Fold this sequence. Notes:
Blueprint: E1 5-7, E2 13-15, H1 43-65, H2 71-90, H3 95-99, E3 102-106, H4 114-125, H5 128-131, H6 140-145, E4 147-151
Amino acid sequence: MWVTEQRRADGLRTPAGESAEYQGYPGQDLGLPETGQRSVSRWGRRIGALCVDWLLCSLIVIFLVRPPGVDRTYWTLAIFAAQDVILTAVTGLTVGKLAFRIRVVRLDGRPVGLIWAFVRTLMLLLVAPPLIADKDMRGLHDRASNTIVVRI
């Protein structure tokens, strides 16, 4: 009998010939493809989408809200949070995510929903949770809301 798989320390199997440290690709253990649609979005797309969303919110504040001086930062943060919660809850997309062809989806296939979008956005605004990511590139904000960012 030929050995075709090994058990990893975490109980998952690895192909024969691979070391026990075999990591695979992000999303493999979640049943997602390695590339193309529904594959895990890489950092470049995510950061690009975040920059587009922030810039758009900044422009809205500058040209539509027009608050005095220091208040611009707070207004931008408030508008960013509102658009992120609403758009993520309803569609899983923001303008930046759409531009970079990525989407937030729940692992169980259900819509993200308002409560989980709020939790995710609140943790995103804390900055540190998105930076603490697992092997599937899910930050603490994604793990708390049972979501993942995939390519569309």
